[in-house]
Amino acid sequence: MRKYVRVFAFAARDQIVYMPAFLFRNIFFVVILFTFFSLWRVIFAGRAALSGFTMVQLLWYLTFTETIELSKSRSLFGIQEEVKDGTVAVTLSRPYSYVLYHLMRALGESYVKMIPMLVVGFLLATLFVGPLPGYLAALPCGIVVIALGLLITNLWLIVINLLSFWSEETMPYYWIVQKLIFILGGLFIPIDLFPQWLSGIARMLPFAFSAYWPSVTMVSFSIETFLTALGGAVFYALALGGLAAFLYGRGKRRICAQGG
Fold first, then answer.
1. Does residue 203 belong to any structural domain of this protein?
2. pLDDT 10s digits, 83-98
3. Is the residue at 259 inside a domain?
4. Which one is predicted more confidently, 225 or 1?
């Protein structure tokens, strides 16, 4: 495993070097949260809570979902390009797992991004609505499930990009999964605000463990919520990891080198 740890470390180091550029690109994080604050302030007018969420909890919830979404790795889209231009054939003879290499590289990048995004989200949410009750108590467990949410999000990207072995252009698949995370994953609206029949289904889908469960663990912490988030995230991480390994194993058999 040492080589994968080194891949993780190299990716993390590279991301630290380019951190100013990353923060500049995501300056609209401020705009997003201000827009959400303005919108939900109107919705909450005259209400103390909505489906169990106070205004404070809801805005903090959105800082965590956006942190996960903005921290995912963009390097994984390179898998599609490697398949398109044939360079993926070169990796077949290298002594490492192709899927695990890209996963560790993505996590090294994502976890470094996550830290400043959490700090920025903390400052903005405190400025807009004030401190989150129980924040420090929830933080140790919350960091674990947020990290697992990022793991699942990056595994989705690997699975989607591995579909390039069959369909060279995979962006339509990415858009579909992204929108499912936006809606059924509770990225923009907590699942608790859905009709009861839909929220019950959405809570158990893999999309919810990318955004909803990590975020609700932070804003409404309980051991039961944490264990549900942890167990579901581990299950879906293993399932998506197995699917990625299966797709790569089948996909590499389809490689056909042309020309020199």
1. yes
2. 777 777 676 667 778 8
3. no
4. 225
